[in-house]
Amino acid sequence: MITGKDFRIDDDVFIRHRDSNVKIKFGNHVAIDKGVYCTTQMDIGDYVHVAPYCVIIGGVGAKLTMEHFSGLSTGAKIVCGGDDFSTGALMNPQVPPQYRDIIIKPIVFKMFSCIGVNSCVMPGVTLAEGSVVGAHSLLTKSTEPWTIYAGSPARPIKKRDKTRAYKYAKELGYKIDG
User: Fold this and answer.
1) What does the pLDDT read at residue 91?
2) Helix (H, G, I), strand (E, B) or coil at 166
3) Which residue has the higher pLDDT, 90 or 13?
4) How far apart are CA 41 and CA 80, in angstroms?
């Protein structure tokens, strides 16, 4: 596990592969709060917050990438992998993999993207730069840049302005196109 400066992780965070050679990397100014549970690889950028009681699942072959200034709100569920319920195969992590249909696809949070309280993101989704997902939403498809999504399934409801986010990131020393 690689950590940058100003990294904080609560004592009761569970990261299944933190002591192995599985890629887990945290940038600078990162906070991982109480009760977070993770079973995947992670590549976390700078100024990222993972709020209390988030769940990031999918197993050792799955991966969550969170670019700079992205975040997960309390109770978020990030599903990078799991059983394909549509095939009718055996579904349970205790069943040997050859008897299951497993979906493992990375989830990517681009810069300035985040999801709201108790929202869920499904495998293979990319949150485009600046996109946000409202509380209690289910995100099953990748988003458009600087757009707000809400609902189950999540749908676009409004555009966001990127001006201040770009201005503040530049003031913090980050190169931003635009």
Assistant:
1) 80
2) helix
3) 13
4) 10
Residue with tokens 């810069």: 111
- DSSP 8-state class, residue 87: G
Contact yes or no for 33/52 (Cβ under 8 A): yes
Residue 26's identity, in one-letter code, is: F
Please state, in angstroms and rounded to a whole number, the distance separating the CA atoms of residues 123 and 78: 8
Q: Average pLDDT, whole number, for the chain?
A: 93
- For 159, other C-beta atoms within 10 Å of its C-beta total 12
Place of tokens 């986010």: 165
For 138-144, the CB contacts below 8 A with 24+ separation are 139/115, 143/113
- The pLDDT assigned to 85 comes to 81
Least confident range of 62-66, 98-102, 124-128, 170-174: 98-102
| β 126-127/107-109 pair status | parallel
